[in-house]
Write a structure and sequence with these properties.
mainly beta; three-stranded antiparallel β-sheet; 8 strands; about 5% helix; disordered C terminus
């Protein structure tokens, strides 16, 4: 078996790690470990919302709608993703939040993969971050 290859299913694997498939938070020996990029397969029920705005963003992000209806809130702007393939990109320094207006599946790619973006325990996003607070899977 080649340890530099991983084959999986985004839906199944995402359920194991709050949606995150790839990033610096994976074990260093795992082919999905990367300090360069993070990838998330987000499955959100209708009404699911980010617990709070991300402020002081240090990464660039691409969010692509796979299915559903998903709204991304940016300073002074609200972006509705309503058709499969609709996407939004925002860069460093752009605060953001989101809400699933319908049951939605979104693919998020962020770069670089840096620690420090965990949502506190009990957030509306489901799941909790490790106690050290360096898990970026918010």
């Amino acid at each position: 078996m080649d340890d530099s290859v991983y084959v999986g299913n985004a839906g199944r694997d995402a359920a194991l790690d709050r949606g995150w498939l790839l990033g610096h938070f994976k074990d260093p020996g795992d082919p999905r470990h990367s300090a360069a990029v993070e990838v998330k397969w987000g499955v959100h029920p209708r009404g699911d919302t980010r617990a709070r705005w991300v402020e002081g963003e240090e990464r660039t992000a691409l969010l692509v709608l796979v299915s559903g209806r998903f709204r991304v809130e940016l300073p002074g702007r609200s972006v509705l993703l309503a058709h499969q393939g609709d996407y939004v990109v925002w860069g460093r320094g752009v605060d953001h939040s989101w809400i699933a207006e319908e049951e939605s599946v979104v693919l998020t790619v962020r770069w670089p993969s840096v620690p420090g973006y965990a949502v506190d325990e009990g957030s509306e996003e489901g799941g909790t971050a490790p106690a050290e607070g360096t898990d970026p899977r918010a």
